[in-house]
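in:
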């Protein structure tokens, strides 16, 4: 069996989620089964319409969308936490049971930073993951221990972004 590796797409530039999405498409094209989990996201990003149609890619859809975590009330935060704990458990179970060859966790770093997933358990999982499993994590700033465990760490650095000139997110490009 081929050794699966751990990828991180991080940094403050645009392209982390789209890189993970591209890798998922490539993997599916080669016959790999991909499980695509998304943290701190809503359901209206346009790539989901296509990912859902690709044989071999399972996107985990969540019952609710949430706004920015920082602006949530304590009650909403508790609800968010429970939803993402369930997502985390589900994704982990599927990955451990060999239901997928690639596990993508988009915005894993943010979920980790906000304490929405158990950090030590995540580190343990990555250290002891099924041998053939490929794992892809995205988010701005990964912790040192994640960087140590990963095999690929690609930092996308913002040189320019139209947001800085007041341009809003554009459908099909940013979401
Ligand atoms: P993409 O989904 O386009 O690959 P990303 O995953 O790298 O982007 P995120 O950090 O997830 O970027 O940010 C989500 C949204 O914010 C995207 O619409 C992205 O284009 C935009 N964005 C990314 N980097 C910046 C930045 N430095 N300033 C403002 N907006 C940004
Ligand atoms: Mg992203």
């Amino acid at each position: 069996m081929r050794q699966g590796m751990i990828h991180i797409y991080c940094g403050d530039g645009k392209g982390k989620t789209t890189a993970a999405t591209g890798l998922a498409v490539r993997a599916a094209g080669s016959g790999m089964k991909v499980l695509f989990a998304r943290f701190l996201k809503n359901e209206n990003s346009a790539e989901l319409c296509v990912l859902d149609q690709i044989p071999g890619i399972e996107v985990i859809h969540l019952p609710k969308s949430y706004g920015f975590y920082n602006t949530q009330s304590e009650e909403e935060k508790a609800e968010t936490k429970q939803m993402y704990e369930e997502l985390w458990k589900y994704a982990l179970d599927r990955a451990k049971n060999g239901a997928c060859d690639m596990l993508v966790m988009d915005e894993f770093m943010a979920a980790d930073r906000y304490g929405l997933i158990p950090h030590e358990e995540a580190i343990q999982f990555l250290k002891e993951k099924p041998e053939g499993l490929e794992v892809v994590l995205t988010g701005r700033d990964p912790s040192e221990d994640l960087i140590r465990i990963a095999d690929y760490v690609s930092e996308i650095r913002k040189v320019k972004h139209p947001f800085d000139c007041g341009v809003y997110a554009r459908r099909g490009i940013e979401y």
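note: Residues 12-18, 140, 158, 161, 163, 169, 174-175 surround adenosine-5'-triphosphate (ligand 1) (CB under 6 Å).
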